[in-house]
Design brief:
With 522 residues, this protein is an alpha/beta fold. It starts with a helix and ends with a helix.
Length: 522
Amino acid sequence: MNTFTKRFAGIASIASVALALISPGIMAAPELVVVNANITAADTKQYRALSVENGVFSEFSNRSDLLLSQADNNTTVIDAKGKRLIAGINDSHLHVTRGGRFYNLETRWEGITSLKAGLAMLKAQAERTPKGQWVRVVGGFSPYQFEEKRLPTPQELTAIAPDTPVFVLHLYSGGVLNQKALEVLNINKDTKAPEGSVIERDAAGNPTGVLLAQPNPMILYKTIAALPQMTTDQQLNSSRQFYRKLLSLGVTSVIDAGGGGHNFPDDYIASETLAKQGELPIRVSNYLFPQVPAKEMLNFMQWMHAFEADENHHSHLENGYVIEGGGELLTYRASDYENFRAPRPELPDDAEHALEEVIRLHLLEGWPFRLHATYDESITRILNVLEHIHNTQRVDSVRWIIDHAETVSDTNLARIKKLGGAIAVQGRMAFAGEDFVSRYGKAQAARTPPIQAMIDAGITVGLGTDGTRVSSFNPWATYYWAVTGKTVGGFALGSTPLERQTALQLFTSGSAALSRWFWHQR
């Protein structure tokens, strides 16, 4: 990352709604002036220069000389030399605290165009992996980005690393283990897969090394959980590196959607420490995710007793590290799976009862909430519950968000709007679009998800990645999908691409509007 990018990333954490923050009146000498830039502000207007005062964008201008005339000897001046500046990216759905815990342990396949090159990376990693640790690729890629258009085989992983366990996770659809990994995990003829998951076997009944979610990904969750982790100090270093990586990609604020295998507060120590020490370089808002089915209410009651909604734990940055609300999973009974290689799951019969109980608790305590829902069928049942609750408790008294909504119908969009909800959309189709088309057809893929229809319905929409497992944490992969309608493998999904500036707005002010900071300005 060059010096200019570093300096801009450092000031851009508030850029997602920059124009809303400009202070009127006469300003003191600015602390920073950037000149000779191509600036795209959050309202998509274009400028050539900007100034910053007290950490806030104080002026945008097409007159570099005018802003320079306001500077003094204490003002930092950056010549952008014609480079483009955009508002800082706000990823409204990124599992960032969990991603930081594992970042230094993982080999990433983002941008790799051949499986051959990916296997070479794993071979090199195996040669330097300490004894007792694993080589792991935990999501963030698509086999369709490779020239070979396929996943590695267990035999290939064994050949490159006969003595080091290797695990490759493909989204939450399946995983591949080498022989050493099967031995370490003691997966054998007698091992039973969790309900809804499959251990692939050969003719003799021996596990091949392929794990499948059909559609339940519990076998994949269990495999990840069984892998060795880092010490507290190592997780702190890993998280620090991950946040710096995000900054280098232009991400300056994140709404964290919790995640499976990620216990609050124990697994949040690294990010919490960085925040309290003032070292967390981007803003993070956390939604809390219960880990044990049938104990969700107990978890939320304990958290709500210990924390206030929107409680900030950053040492000095306003809204810097916030405990914001509950979700993206509120109850396991009312959550579907996004595995497009398997049939659509049906929510169980008692999903509504479980969901009503936990939502009423959130409303009673004034806690925002977000709901994981991939399919329109799930969203219909969730909205039935919300409408029922709304008769006695106003659902729109708190921020609430539907996450994903790939196949949401126009009818349900109108219902979401009426109840005051918002939608967080992610670029999951960029990584699973080929599988979606294979199962549901191109006609359905052409409106999956129907982002323009959401906007037209007047719903607040934020764009995000859903990194680090079911997609890449790199926002530009999601942005590419949004503005081209193509997967990372180059497959055209038939959807109508968004205008580039519209996509930028959704990734900045749109996502920011899903947080407390600007919710009430809607």
